[in-house]
Amino acid sequence: GAGVSQSPRYKVAKRGQDVALRCDPISGHVSLFWYQQALGQGPEFLTYFQNEAQLDKSGLPSDRFFAERPEGSVSTLKIQRTQQEDSAVYLCASSFYATEAFFGQGTRLTVV
Amino acid sequence: DQQVKQNSPSLSVQEGRISILNCDYTNSMFDYFLWYKKYPAEGPTFLISISSIKDKNEDGRFTVFLNKSAKHLSLHIVPSQPGDSAVYFCAASGANYGQNFVFGPGTRLSVLP
Question: Residue A105: closest CA among chain B residues belongs to which residue?
Fold first, then answer.
């Protein structure tokens, strides 16, 4: 499809487990964002890439969170040693520079 | 400290009437504003945007108004339809602020048939 694709859609992890969430942005989109959305709240910014460069990671809540986009297309958000407070929907979005961002369906992470 | 506020968690409107969703922001560096619509189990969908050089932008049934001096924007939906029932998020960004979008907490709109 032509939209932003995220996988997996749902992930259940045991506390302490490492997880990797994948995002395939819209082809040609330079900017890629990761957001975290807790229940009943708006998306909270995690990190931003322009092509392969991670220009802003100020929203990453701890050093357990790591994101990469090595070839300027697909991105992976990795969470090490997951904790219960990491349970949320993780949204990926892409845009052509500073225009409106298009979101994927998200990955719902549940840490048990 | 919320930089983008949507003070109404929910709103109910009769089908065919106008829906008005409000948003306030605190950071004067924001110069681009967007509205997103979200259905359950889906990602937010872009609806309409407005740049700070304008005070109104219209797209079909959707109109966004921006009052820079009051740091306030609103989304008008006329006429409202049952399919408009969703959570609406206001978002802001700025060329001098950074590239990320700052979202409000959302307003759940219910359009009653």
Answer: B43
How many CA atoms lie less than 13 Å away from B31 in the CB half-sphere?
9
Query: At CB < 8 Å, which residues of chain B contact A?
Result: 4, 6, 32, 34, 36, 41-46, 49, 89, 91, 93, 95, 98-106
In this complex, how many residue pairs, one in chain A and one in chain B, have their CB atoms less than 8 Å apart?
Answer: 58
Q: Residue A55 is nearest to which of B6, B36, B99, comparing CB atoms?
A: B99
Distance (Å) from the alpha carbon of A36 to chain B's nearest alpha carbon: 11
pLDDT tens by residue, chain A, 112 residues = 579 999 999 999 999 999 999 999 999 999 999 999 998 899 999 999 999 999 999 999 999 999 999 999 999 999 999 999 999 999 999 988 767 889 999 999 999 9
Burial of B70 (0-12, 13-18, 19+ CB in 10 A): exposed
Smallest CA–CA distance from A43 into chain B, residue: B103
At B59-74, the pLDDT tens digits run 999 999 999 999 999 9
Residue A91 to residue A94: CA distance in whole angstroms: 10
Q: Contact, A89 vs B44, CB < 8 A? A: no
Instruction: For residues B63 and B56, give the distance between their C-alpha atoms in angstroms, rounded to a whole number.
Output: 7
